[in-house]
Amino acid sequence: MRIDKFLKNSRIKRRQVAKEACENGRVLINGNTVKPGSLVNEGDIIEVTFGKSNLKVKVTNLIDGAKKSTAEEMYEAIDG
Predict the structure, then answer these.
(1) Which residues neighbour 2 within 8 Å (Cβ) at sequence distance 6 or greater?
(2) Do residues 42 and 60 touch, judged by C-beta distance below 8 A?
(3) pLDDT digits 0-9 by tens, 2-39
(4) Closest CA to 59 of 75, 73, 72, 39
(5) For the chain, what is the largest distance between any 2 Cα atoms, rounded to a whole number of angstroms?
(6) Are 8 and 67 in contact (CB under 8 A)?
(7) What whole-number distance in Å separates Cα of residue 80 and Cα of residue 76?
(8) Is the pTM of this model over 0.85?
(9) Count of alpha carbons within 13 Å of 64, Cβ hemisphere only?
(10) Is the pLDDT at 80 greater than 70, yes or no?
(11) CA neighbor of 74 nearest in space, from 25, 23, 40, 34
């Protein structure tokens, strides 16, 4: 699954916002800066910078077309 779609499906960011974040170097997968079309796999660590705060999550499940009730099953938050 593409990173911009993963961020949208998991309700972390809207797809356009996720795309812009990737293009501006604010999204990392396993420590590497990514483009909007970069692929995400289960077990990957994603870091997203929102202004002055950071979100770090581990991908636990890839659900295409996730509903609001199942979106949080796609990742687990990591401290740090």
Answers:
(1) 36, 37, 38, 39, 40
(2) yes
(3) 999 999 999 888 888 889 999 999 999 999 999 999 99
(4) 75
(5) 30
(6) no
(7) 13
(8) yes
(9) 2
(10) no
(11) 40
